[in-house]
Amino acid sequence: MAGLKHFAGVARTPFLLLPPTLVASGAAAAAWDGHFSWLHTLAALLGLVALHMAVNTLNEWSDMRTGIDLETERTPFSGGSGTLPGGGMSSRTALVFGLACAAVGLAVGLWFMPRIGVALVPLMVLGGVCVLAYTDVLARLGVGEVAAGFGLGAGPVVGTALVQDGSWSRAAVAAGVPAFFMTFNLLFLNEFPDEQADRHGGRRNLVILLGRRRAALVYAAAAIATPLSIAAAVVAGWLPAPALIGALPSLLLFRPLQWAAGDTEQPVPIPALAANVVWNLATNALLAVGLVIAILIR
Fold it and tell me: What is the mean pLDDT of residues 269-293?
């Protein structure tokens, strides 16, 4: 029988640090524009964590069913948790658990509906598609990275701001742009180690479609666009000047960009994969801190 550690495994618990940073960024952006609710922020966090657990678990279930998990060479950041291939949990249990997590996310969305209104519907629909169709549909159509960038990047940032009081926030849209690029790249770089297993399993991600050299250049472009988008939003007046501290973690990109500029046929170094994750988390978090500082000093 599956234990707690096995449920934590398929949910990819270490990666669940991402939702709090996205919610913090969106809530801080909304607060900068004068709208904030602790209750709604915590509810948004609960829903996003549940949905992240759902997409991770359903991904593990699908990768076991297609045989991808039997071929991957696992790293701390790619290749799945190994829970299902190792016999820690049955595929059926993983499927039920993933759908249950998705149901929790849906319940939170339905709780918000009478409080926020129809403005929430498009985000709920797109989010649901990203969760339920990511592995078996979107990742096989060449749009998996874009779906990740929205579903666990821009969407949650803008959505967290929206559920504060039902209004859109320019600051939230501006904070959602770097979040999109970062989550796009978070998935993208992790696809390089899994290239052969994904190819055999029928996936059509950008690494497979573009080839490693061109895919690495796309990764580099999205990485560079992240701090530039923050700076552009400050210049345009959509974000306050203290938000520029959100660009500082881009200094961590030295290792992954060094790899992208070199021989991309070589494996992505583990320190580069680690830097990619820390960059993502730190940028969202510092962007939120910058917005809070701006609120305190204005």
Answer: 97
Does domain 4-297 sit in CATH 1.10.600? yes
* Residues 26-51 pLDDT 10s: 999 999 999 999 999 999 999 999 99
Q: Encode burial over 90-103: b for 16+ CB neighbours within 10 A, e otherwise.
A: eeebbbebbeebbe
pLDDT score of 1 more than 60 = no
pTM above 0.90, yes or no: yes
Kindly write down the DSSP assignment for every residue of 118-157, as one continuous string.
Answer: GGGHHHHHHHHHHHHHTTTTGGGTT-HHHHHHIIIIIHHH
Collapse the DSSP code of 268 into the 3-class scheme (helix H, G, I; strand E, B; otherwise coil) and give the result: coil
Whole-angstrom CA distances from 154 to 50, 90, 92, 132, 174 are 17, 33, 32, 18, 9
216 pLDDT band (50/70/90 cuts)?
very high
For the chain, domain boundaries: 4-297
